[in-house]
Amino acid sequence: RLHMFPFDFHEHCKGRKFDNIKRLLETAQADIQKFGFTAVQPSVVDRRQTGVCRVNCIDCLDRTNAVQSYLGRSSLCAQLVYAGAVRDMDEASAVDMGDVLAMWSENGDMISRQYAGTNAMKKLPRVDQGNRSIMGALSDGRCSLMRMYYNAFLDDARTCCVDLVTGAASLERLMETEMERTSRLKMAYDIIADLVQRQLAELKQQP
Questions:
Q1: CA distances for 43 relative to 39, 54, 80, 82, 134, angstroms
Q2: CA 40 to the chain's CA centroid
Q3: Cβ atoms of residues 55 and 68 within 8 Å
Q4: What is the chain's Cα-based Rg?
Q5: Does this model's pTM top 0.85?
Q6: What is the residue-level pLDDT of the chain in tens, covering all 207 positions?
């Protein structure tokens, strides 16, 4: 059975109030608790996970990753209570999650490189703090520009490589895609070179 919980990320988290993602978890809390997690004692399956949560932002991998991080931490807190490491969910929520955030950030980078060609934006340490530094904003801007370039010139080759690994494409198709990419890059270079030459010519004509 499928339950859908729409969540307007822009509306609830505007002003970089990412902690409001917890509102979504509160809405879906009954299902999250019912799904649970799998726990195995020596040679005995003590409990089984009965469902999964799928998060899909309509246009942003990074916002998907941010919401998934809150789901993951919620599940981790429940597992800490089950294991007897803490007494209750409130105590589990107070546990330092620095290592978990670092691990999740690295995982988000790896997924983002595969799909978008750059590291992830809105990285979790910044998400968890609810603010962003100037360096963080500049880093996200750099990633956005790089993604524009990759999507325009390199996306076909990257997609074809994924298809090749999964068996959905052949090596011949990969070679064809690489030739097409090289042709587009040369065209872009020729256009830029022509514009530069025109500008230089105009500067030379100026008194």
A1: 11, 30, 21, 18, 52
A2: 30
A3: yes
A4: 23
A5: no
A6: 899 999 999 889 887 788 899 999 999 999 999 999 999 988 899 999 999 999 988 767 778 888 888 999 999 999 999 999 999 999 998 888 888 888 888 888 888 887 777 887 765 444 444 445 666 677 777 778 887 777 766 666 667 777 777 777 677 766 776 677 677 667 776 777 777 777 777 777 776
Cα 169 versus chain centre, distance: 25
Main-chain phi, psi angles of 40, to 5 degrees? -120, 120
Distance CA 155, CA 118 (A): 12
